[in-house]
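Quick one:
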Amino acid sequence: MGQDVTSNTLSAPAAEPFLTTEEVAARYRTSTTTVSWWRRNQYGPKGIKVGRRVLYPQAEIERFERSLAEQVQEAV
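Output:
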C-alpha cells in the first residue's frame, strides 16, 4: 500500500497575486495613463516597482476599494 503524502505535506503559502497597470486600468474601466497619474499623485492603489514594471498587490487593490466604499458611505 502506498503512503498518503497529502496529509503530511506542508502547503506552501500562496503567492500573492499582482495586477499589472493594464489590468488595474481594465478593472476600473479607465486608461493606463489615468492609473499612472493616480500613482504619481498618490491616489489609488499603491504599486510596487519591479524592474521597469509597476505591479499592484491584490491586497492593495482591496484596500483601495474599501477606502472608496467608505467614502461613499460617508457621503450618504
